[in-house]
Design a protein that fits this description.
Layout lengths: L3 H15 L7 E6 L3 E7 L5 H5 L4 H13 L6 E7 L1
Parallel strand pairs: 2-3
Antiparallel strand pairs: 1-2
Helix pairs in contact: 1-3
């Protein structure tokens, strides 16, 4: 299982692989006792590529992040910011 930093790198890898402007991707990590939230800021033109049709791609990214971060008792969330 992965640590929080490894989970962040997984999210970064997945998102940068999808977008046309990988240099514009910024991930902010907000931690609390109950959860870890990764806020993904990217170029507005790439938002649709990360969200996907009917949100399927972002759901898959969230599922992978939750599975990777399941070692500790905190919940992992991924949010996309424009």
């Amino acid at each position: 299982m992965a640590t929080v930093d490894q989970t962040e790198e997984l999210v970064r890898y997945l998102v940068t692989s999808l977008v046309e402007a990988p240099d514009a991707v910024e991930i902010t990590k907000n931690e609390s006792e109950e959860s870890v939230t990764f806020e993904v800021a990217l170029d507005p033109a790439d938002i649709g590529k990360v969200i996907g049709r009917q949100g399927r791609i972002i759901k898959a990214i969230r599922t992978l992040a939750r599975a990777a971060g399941s070692t500790d008792s905190r919940q992992v969330e991924v949010e996309v910011l424009g």
